[in-house]
Amino acid sequence: RISIFGESHVGMVGVTLDGVPSGIALSEKSFAADLARRKSGKRGTTPRKESDAPHIVTGVFNGRTTGAPLTVVYYNENTLSGDYRNLVTHPRPSHADWVAMNKYKGFADYRGGGHFSGRLTLGLVTAGVVAKLILKKLYKNKIKFDTVLSEIGGCANPDRFPEIIEEALRTQDSVGGIVECTASGVPVGLGEPFFDSVESTMSHLLFSIPAVKGVEFGAGFAAARMRGSEHNDPIISPDGTTATNNAGGIVGGLTNGNPVVVRVVIKPTASISSPQITLNTESGKPEELRIKGRHDACIALRAPVVVEAAAAVALCDLTLIARSLRP
User: Fold this and answer.
1) What is the mean pLDDT of residues 112-137?
2) How many CA atoms within 13 Å lie on the side-chain side of 17?
3) From residue 190, how far is each of 127, 239, 254 by CA, in Å?
4) Which residues, listed in sequence order, are joined to residue 5 by a DSSP beta bridge?
């Protein structure tokens, strides 16, 4: 059970994980590698610099998880809230400003996107680290994750990614991308049909990531253009290994022992510097909006570790259910 809290420009953001088994070795250093993968700094990411130092508040004693709720917080240190004042009356197109204003009757924190900010993905990455440590202990380090940014702006050639990013920056625009996550070493039989299938469990988590607009497994949407003779994966080994993996390692909602392959669509960042048209909520008329603030030209650059975290959490949860270890 995961509870994420905080807003982009308040004192802190964080996560509480309930149901973590006891005895898992964990310290602040355990999060360093994945947090580094999420950090800004690369060309095309936000200029906002945060230390993103994790602080374990509860659930760890003498370097091991206790079985009690595990809480980790991150302090917000570099905020420029004044950049967002005009969004009170001029909600950003394709951002959560307008819907949040309506749902919460004008009381939502709009600074930096508030609770809808990508900053909240720190909690997901934290949960993913813990999930991978649990999987490592339960499966003796057999499950491995390989997550890559496979496409940016419609281009699948990584050599061209920098020029696509530069073009977006030059035109004060943004681009989206596709992240592909492969989990190998996953055992046969994880998943609980129908409503807790591997696809539905993992997709639920993946769609909670801000900016995710599509999820596919294996051949995915391409399967609609294939025949059964093309899409079917011949079983060629007693351990269930298949000649192809169009199913993405999942059949009937259950893992089949082949690598679990999921691809996730990340939309272009909604906050762009070029002028846009939006509603002036005071006048009731559309007018030009110029967005201030520090935003990613391609949020997909920082998304692979977040996607991997969601996939790891799903596989961890399904494992704990299968082994009756989750309370």
Assistant:
1) 92
2) 26
3) 20, 15, 5
4) 14
